[in-house]
Every structure is written in C-alpha cells, then in structure tokens.
C-alpha cells in the first residue's frame, strides 16, 4: 500500500472509530433505560409518574400521601408485580420528559391517548375515559366556539386542554398557559381568566370553592387515558396491558371508578387511529 492510500485508510478508520464513540453514549443510554417487569422486581419497587395536583385523578393529601384514581390503579399494578410503588408527582409538561429520561418507569398520569404523543411514548390499552370542555361562570356568555374570542382563556401548558382550546378558539383569542391544573383553576377563581379548558372534574372543583357559580359551556372531545412506557419496551407494555385486561375482567377497575367517579366504566375502544396499544 503506497503512502497516500495508507494515509486515507488510516484516516477512514479514525473517522469510523470516532463515529462509533459518538454513537456509544446514545446506545448506552437506551440500554440503561430499558426496563422489564423482572428488572422492576429485582429493583424492589416501581417508580410511577403521576399528577400531584389534579384531583380526583392524582393529588397529594394533607398527610403527604399520593392519592386519587391513577394512584389506586398504580397501586394495583404494583401489587400485580409484587413490589411497592414509589410515586413521582409531575407537572403536566414534565410527564413525558420524566419517562423518556428514565426518571420514572411508567406513567399513570392522566395521559390522554393522542397520535402526537404516541410518537414519543408507548401507550397501553385505555383504562379510563375523560371529557375535555370549556368551563366558565354561568353568567359568562359562551354558546359557540366563536364566543371564545371575547375572553381570556386559561389552560395547563402542554395539556390536552391546551390543544383543544388552541384548535377550537378563533384566531386572535388570548390564551394564557399555566404550569398545572391547580394554577389554571385558581386563575379562573381569581379573575385572571374568564374561562378555562377543563377536564370532567373542573366544574366540581370550581364549585367547591364558589358554590353554584360555574358550568360546562362547550364540549370539545371525549378522550381515553392509557398508561405510558418508553418506546420499544415490549415486556413492560405487555405487562401493563395484561394488568388492564385483568382489572377490567375481575371488577377492580369498576371499584376504582365507583370510588372516584361514582359511575361504571364505559365501553373501551379496541383500537384508536394512530395509537398502537402494543409494541410492534
């Protein structure tokens, strides 16, 4: 091999080696984040991301205990795996980052099943339904989407309410985004906004603070919530789906529904467009 070709050969191998070294951290990170039910059992706990300020879905009691619909479902999943649950309360916008960076093992966190989210996380089968609406005082005149443009509307940042209000409000509507559901509700109570994008429990929470004052004005969509794991993690996704099938069949899901929602579970869809329930 002449000196010129030898130089090119050495340079090519150096570049290939450098590329491999640059790729290694990404491969190591992906490997380090992968988790299975067996690994959870060996670890001795499952770390669950949940909302900490959105009753009755997920909230922290005055005694410091994580409680709510999602907390009960997560506790049942921990029992199924035979490990205790460690909860990590998360703001709405921090749910997916907490999962994808490995801070939590799974999300039971009021995660509406949306195609855009399915690009970042793996959804399970749905285990609960939710209704997204616009809520305001009874005296506030809102009968159509066009009426939304007359008011300042609050939403939790990066939430389904944020998406629905943004998509339905007329161009030019003032939308204020807050860190979480509690801050959004407080903004309506304090007069910072005149309406809010809401889940199905906002009216109840608002009227607890100011009785017989607030009502649903517009209904945007009915959505389903699923548990979320990281993309490609087949075993933990399969375990979550088997667990959801089990609690639907044995009545445990119905008990949690009656406890927190005072109703029976709905019929759940067998599929949702653009949202796979299993790892392919």
From TrEMBL:
Entry annotated with the keyword Signal: yes
PANTHER family: ARGININE-BINDING EXTRACELLULAR PROTEIN ARTP, MEMBRANE-BOUND LYTIC MUREIN TRANSGLYCOSYLASE F
Keywords from the UniProt entry: Signal
Name of the protein in its database record: Transporter substrate-binding domain-containing protein
Domain Solute-binding protein family 3/N-terminal intervals: 45-264
Lineage summary: Bacteria, Pseudomonadati, Pseudomonadota, Alphaproteobacteria, Hyphomicrobiales
First and last residue of the signal peptide: 1-34
Highest taxon above the source species: Bacteria
UniProt xrefs under Pfam families: SBP_bac_3
